[in-house]
Design brief:
- By secondary structure, the protein is an all-alpha fold.
- The protein has a single domain, classed as Hypothetical protein YhaI fold, CATH 1.10.3750.10.
- Helix content is 74%, strand content 0%.
- It is built from six helices and no strands.
- It is elongated, with a radius of gyration of 16 Å.
- It starts with a helix and ends with a helix.
Length: 112
């Protein structure tokens, strides 16, 4: 990757973080956005996280409908696929405060 490409990636990251910063400033409960900014998570990684949460939410709903009562494997799956510099505990706490995927994260919080 040449210097120009690296520079463009950094600019894109800064623009993404700037958009999130405005959201954090207007609503101090946007802890997940703050976590993204503090850990240098990219827009691509963030979108992948949202897709992962959608997938796991669907699995959780299906398993719950089938009578499952232990969702620890879903917590492990989510944890294993997070960006390396995020901890599952921080993510769950931040998402709950921000109101993201609340039913799923309330359930997964029980297994921490």
């Amino acid at each position: 990757m040449n210097e120009l490409e690296v520079l463009l990636q950094r600019i894109n990251l800064l623009e993404f973080h700037q958009k999130l910063m405005v959201k954090v400033l207007t609503n101090p409960n946007n802890d997940f956005y703050r976590l993204i900014i503090e850990n240098g998570i990219t827009e691509k990684e963030t979108n992948a996280f949202y897709q992962l949460c959608e997938k796991i939410s669907i699995k959780w709903a299906e398993q719950k409908a089938e009578g499952y009562v232990n969702f620890h494997p879903l917590l492990k799956e989510l944890s294993a696929l997070l960006p390396a510099n995020l901890s599952i505990e921080e993510v769950i706490k931040a998402c709950l405060k921000q109101g993201l995927y609340e039913p799923l994260f309330r359930e997964l919080q029980k297994y921490l």
